Structures are given as structure tokens and as C-alpha cells.
Amino acid sequence: MPLLCFATAAYSGYSVLAIGIGRMRQTQFNWVVSGAAAVINVVLNVILIPRYGMIGAAIATLAAYVALFVGMWLRSRRVYAVPYQWRRLLTLTAVAVGLTILGRLVGSLPLAIALTVVYPLVLLPLGFYQPAELARLRRLAPGW
User: Fold this and answer.
1) DSSP secondary structure letters along 105-127
2) What are the CA-CA distances from residue 32 to residues 6, 29, 72, 98, 142 (Å)?
3) Cβ 16 vs Cβ 69: under 8 Å
4) pLDDT digits (tens, 9 = 90+) for 66-114
5) Distance from first CA to last CA of the chain, Å, rounded?
């Protein structure tokens, strides 16, 4: 399930990036990005499913959606450049992956729930939050 959650996040990022390209009416090469991701998915499915079953299919889906995201990002930079906050996105992703791996290693549902709860707190010492976000958090949690 975690692999598919990360795949969904990558696909959502692709959708956001595709908006700018659509607004600029420069979609004529989107098929190249989508086609490349589809080829990656099919090839990885053929390689991974016989050995790993549904986990192989999830890995193939994740890889294809990450390729879709990266391909659309490369394309969108040329068509409709937006200064996304990439450091924050990478921090979110790295922490989520790290906590997911930790939860899988321990294999405890209560721990998985606890890791989900502490996720926003783990971001604090990493400098993830902007001053306005910290101010809002302090208003929501007095004495914090």
C-alpha cells in the first residue's frame, strides 16, 4: 500500500505540472511523456510481476508515475516555468519515505499510527515550516 500511496502523490504532482502546459495550449508533446511512462510501466511489469507479484506491479506503477512526474516537470520548465518550492517537496518526501520504512521495519500498527501523528513534528527541526506557517501552528496549539 505505501508504494501506491507514493505513486498517487507522484501522479498528483504530474497533474499539477500539466495545468501550466494546458493553459499555454502546448500539449502536443504530452503524449511523449505519457508514452515513455507507459513503456516504463509495461517493461517493469513484465520484469517484476513474475517474481514479486502485486508488489512488483506496485513498484512498476510507482516508477512509471515518478517518470511521468519528472518528464512533465522537464517539459513544463520550458513551457510554463513556475518556481516551485522543491526543497520543501524533497523534505516532505524524504521524511515520508523514512517514516514509512521505519514503520515497515518495526511492523506494528500502533507504531505506524504514532509515526503518522509525529510526521508534522519531524519536519520542525528540518526547517520545513515557513514563519507564517509556524505562527499559524502556534495559534492552533497554544503553549507550543
Assistant:
1) HHT-HHHHHHHHHHHHHHHGGGT
2) 23, 5, 10, 32, 51
3) no
4) 999 998 888 887 777 778 888 998 999 999 988 888 888 888 888 888 9
5) 33
Cell digits for 86?
A: 522543491
Rounded Cα distance, 55 and 48, in Å = 8
Rounded Cα distance, 48 and 58, in Å: 9
pTM summary value: 0.72
Residue 56's alpha-carbon distances to 32, 129, 132, in angstroms, are 24, 35, 42
d(CA 66, CA 8): 9
Q: Residue 65 is which amino acid? A: Y
SS3 content of the chain, % helix, strand, coil (to 5): 85, 0, 15
Look at residue 35 and give its three-state secondary structure. helix
What residues have CB less than 8 Å from 88, skipping those under 6 apart?
128
Q: What is the DSSP letter of 81?
A: -
